[in-house]
Every structure is written in C-alpha cells, then in structure tokens.
Design a protein that fits this description.
Number of domains: 2
Structural class: alpha+beta
CATH architecture of the largest domain: 3-Layer(aba) Sandwich
C-alpha cells in the first residue's frame, strides 16, 4: 500500500501547476446559487465538473436536474464487492460577493498573492470539490484504480440552505446508497486540525408588516396611524428577555441536555480568544444561560439578519412608511423539529397583527441538525490520515453552523458519516476569501491516505 500511496502523492506534486490552473478555472464560474441572476453560471459550473469527472475516469457522470440547481453525480464502482462504497458529498455553489468594493482582486478571477489563492469559493467550498477530483485523478493515473468504490454527490444549493435536496435525496435513495458518507464541506488546518462531528439545524424566515396603503406624511399622520416600523421593533424586541433567552412559547421544550463528557469535549474545542477576536466585542450576551461554548453550539438561537422600511437615503424624509420587513434565522439543536419550531415562530409573530397593521411570516428553509458518531472506524480512518501526514489527530468539535444535507442523510438514509476538508484559508463568506496553496497540496496527500484507510474499514 505504501508504494501506491507514494505514487499518487508523487503524481500530485509533479502536476502541481496543472492542478492550480484547473482550480482557477473552477473558481472562475460565478456559481452563486442564491441569486437567480447566476442560474446559467451555476449550471455551467456543474457541467464542467461532470466533464472533469468523466475525463479522470469516472462512470455515469451526469448533471441531474432538481427543482432548483442541479446535482453532479458520478461513480467508480470497480474496486469489488469486498471493498466499501463511500458517498462523497460537497457543494460547488458559493456565496454572493458583496460588498464588491472591499475585494482587492476580482472575486471570480483568481489571483495568487503571497502563497494564497484569492477568489470567492476558494475555501468554501470549491477546495473540497477540486481536492477530491485531484486525489481521485492522482490515484487513477498512478495506479489505474481506486482503493474503494466511490459515489460523488456535489450539490449547487448548500449556501442557500439546500431547499431542493430533500426531494432529491428521497427520490434517489438507491442511487445514493453506500456504506458511509464522507462530508467534505469543511476546512483543513495543518497546525490545529479540527473536524466537526455535529452541527445545528436552521430555519429562515421573512416577516412583512403592512399598514397604510402608501407612505404617509409623518406630521399629518404620526400619532393617528400605527407605524409598521414601530411594530417591527416591538416584535424584534420581544424575541429575547434581558438575559438572552428566547421568549417564543415552547422554543426550548425539546432541547436535549448534554452529558458531562460532551461538555468536556465542547469546552476543549472552544477557541475563546480567537472567537472574541473575530467578534471584536465581549461574548457576554446570554452568559446567565450557559457557557460561551455551549451557547454557540448546543443551544438554539434566533437572530435578525436584516431589516428595512421607510426612507434610507441621506438627510431626512418625514414619512410614516407603509411597510417594514425583516429577515430571521434560527439555529436548532437536537431534538428540535424544524417544522414545529417554524410554525411556533409563525404563530407567535403573526399574533402581532392588529386592526390596522397586518403581519405575515414566510418560512424559507427548514433543516435538521446533524450528528456523527465520535467513535467509529470511519473517524479513525480520518484521524490516521491526518496523523500520517502532519503528525496530529483532529480535535472533534461541535459547531454552531448548519449543513442541511447532513441532517437529511441522518434522517432519510442513516449513513454513518465522517468529515474531511481540503482548504486552509480565511474570509469565508467575506471579501478576499483565500486558500493557502501549499496547505491545499498537503491536504491532497492526506486525502490520498484517507481513501486508502477507508478502504480497509470492514464494518
């Protein structure tokens, strides 16, 4: 096995420039899944990835339509029945680039500066897509085979909550069946490696408050017409008490208490100083409820992501606005049911309607939390790959973010899972996103070892 691993690693480094050129090409697609303006670009990106999979030797390479953006599927099932089958998951869609003026280079015209490759999606998560393709290409080119059977599923909607993935998964259970799932929607840290074993679910919603039929003169109508912006403020102000506890009835009813061992694991993985530095403020909001680490990972949240209404320009315009709106996301934890929480939120907010102001809630995505077994042969295969490459094992961490597709697989197919990532970088979802080039190639070495290790799992 050592010779085959080394042969693939040698192939990676001998073809470094070609790999960078291909990565830059992948990054050139503005595959912004959340913005309908880029629908054609998302599809073009999916088609290009499918062609690359075909080129390196995969079978059944296809771009499968959904009610939203397509899924890229391909497989290589020639390792034999005595070898396991892995379903490799990642996403090729990216976040919007705003604010554009804060970028130091064009977000879809990748540029290397000081060993960093700058582009939207460089780390989140085209590094994972391209990393897997380069690992499989190296294994096939160097050895003519893969060490295990592989199915690929790359989606184009992760950054907008995977709204059409549940119907896709339900309709393609047989196609997606495997022995285990490898989630590659993660990062790579060669100094302090971390792998997420659990994450929160998410609900998104929009609230619209409508009052008078048009914007009114505030001098003539102020005091006699209820102001939709005032109602919006009243609703938002009612969501939390002074300690930060969410006030929607029943919101915490299904929240699970964590064990002492889980608490120790969460506390050990909590990066207090870095989190405080990234926030730029003290993390004291809600400390009477639980520790910072627990509030950020095992407690549910409710946050306003944006709000608007009335005049937004310079100076003053004395109007009483006809409407106001705000956007909300809620992060959920086991065993909160997204649909039940969404309906509780909708009922609570719409009860603020009056005879003169109408409040309507539109629910967007509803995604379940996910969890992986912290002790499994698949996790051990991941740990061994890291240890062989950088001399360290990953710290297993529980994260506050959401990966909707994993919650779907937990519930609908029940595959064992482990996590993996190829991109070390910063500014995810922000201007000047980048991936560290040398670390990316080190991650490819680790990925080659990972797939060989996974091939030996007999569970």
């Amino acid at each position: 096995m050592t010779d085959t691993i080394q042969a693939a690693i040698n192939h990676v480094h001998h073809n470094r420039e070609e790999a960078i050129e291909g990565f830059i090409k992948l990054l050139s697609f503005p595959s912004i899944g959340a913005d309908p303006t880029y629908t054609k670009d998302v599809k073009a990106c999916a088609n290009w990835i499918a062609e690359e999979l075909k080129r390196i030797g995969f079978d059944n390479c296809k771009v499968i339509k959904t009610d939203g953006h397509p899924v890229v599927y391909a497989d290589w099932l020639k390792a034999g029945d005595d070898k396991p089958t892995v379903l490799v998951y990642d996403h090729y869609d990216v976040q919007p680039v705003d604010p554009l003026h804060l970028w130091d280079s064009e977000p879809f015209d990748a540029e290397i500066r000081d060993g960093r490759l700058y582009a939207r999606g460089a780390t989140d998560n085209k590094a994972g897509v391209w990393g897997n393709l380069k690992v499989f290409e190296a294994l096939l080119a160097a050895n003519g085979t893969l060490p295990l059977n592989v199915k690929i599923m790359f989606e184009g909607e992760e950054e907008s909550g995977s709204p059409n993935m549940q119907p896709f998964v339900e309709a393609n259970k047989d196609l997606l069946q495997a022995d285990f799932m490898l989630n590659c929607d993660g990062g790579y840290d060669p100094v302090n490696p971390r792998v997420a074993y659990a994450g929160r679910g998410i609900i998104s919603a929009e609230v619209k408050i409508t009052g008078p039929k048009v914007d009114l003169h505030s001098g003539m109508f102020g005091g006699i017409v209820q102001n939709p912006l005032h109602v919006a403020g009243k609703i938002i102000g009612s969501f939390h008490d002074d300690d930060g506890r969410i006030q929607i009835p029943g919101y915490y009813d299904a929240v699970q208490a964590i064990s002492d061992s889980e608490r120790e694991r969460i506390d050990a993985g909590w990066q207090a100083e870095k989190t405080k530095e990234d926030a730029g403020v003290e993390l004291i909001w809600g400390r009477s409820i639980a520790s910072d680490a627990e509030r950020a990972t095992v407690y549910p949240t409710l946050d306003i992501n944006g709000m608007w209404g009335g005049y937004q320009g310079p100076g003053t315009k004395t109007v009483l606005p006809a409407e106001a709106e705000f956007k909300v996301t809620m992060r959920l934890v086991p065993d909160q049911n997204p649909h039940e929480i969404a309906q509780a939120f909708k009922t609570y907010v719409e009860n603020f309607s009056t005879d003169t102001v109408n409040v309507v809630v539109t629910i967007g995505e509803e995604a379940w939390p996910f969890a992986m077994a912290v002790e499994s042969p698949y996790m051990e295969a991941m740990q061994a790959a890291l240890e062989s490459t950088i001399g360290k094992r990953a710290q297993l961490v529980r994260v506050g973010g959401s990966i909707p597709i994993l919650g779907m697989f937990n519930r609908l197919i029940g595959l064992p899972m482990t996590g993996w990532g190829y991109g070390e970088g910063e500014n995810i979802h922000s201007p000047n996103e980048y991936v560290v080039v040398d670390s990316f190639f080190q991650a490819l070495e680790a990925g080659i070892r990972l797939y060989h290790n996974l091939a030996e799992v007999t569970e």
